From TrEMBL:
Record InterPro entries: Chorismate_II_sf, Chorismate_mutase-related, CM_bact, CM_dom_sf, CM_II_prokaryot
Protein name: Chorismate mutase
Originating organism: Cryobacterium fucosi
Enzyme class: isomerase
PROSITE patterns linked to this entry: CHORISMATE_MUT_2
Gene Ontology biological-process entries: chorismate metabolic process; salicylic acid biosynthetic process
Superkingdom of origin organism: Bacteria
Molecular function as annotated in GO: chorismate mutase activity
Gene3D superfamilies linked: Chorismate mutase (1.20.59.10)
Residue ranges of domain Chorismate mutase in the record: 13-104
Disordered: annotated span: 108-127
Keyword Cell division: no
Keywords: Isomerase
Amino acid sequence: MAAAEESSADAGQDAIDELGSIRQSIDNIDAALIHLLAERFKFTQQVGRLKAAHGLPPADPTRELLQIQRLRGLAEEARLDPAFAEKFLNFIIAEVIHHHEQIAGTENANGGARAAGSAATGTNPAS
């Protein structure tokens, strides 16, 4: 019986060790996601400043729809739930638009932007 208990204890420790290893991988991926999001937001801040400087609207619904469709397709290829990918992107887009509105407000307060709504182009916070 002692050998069986020792074997069971070893199996339990093996599972705990494997769990720790898997969780470390998850933690590494989470860190990479945060760094990628930070990089993405650096670029969307540039888009926001460009839009504000030229009086472009903070949102581009046509571009956003194309991005959602594209990312749903990528999610399907990656075997990730496309509905989840869409929710995730919608969350990011909402935050980016909020940033663009803040940037536009700052630019307007400084007299640096034309009136919103003029000369809409293909730039978008989701890009």
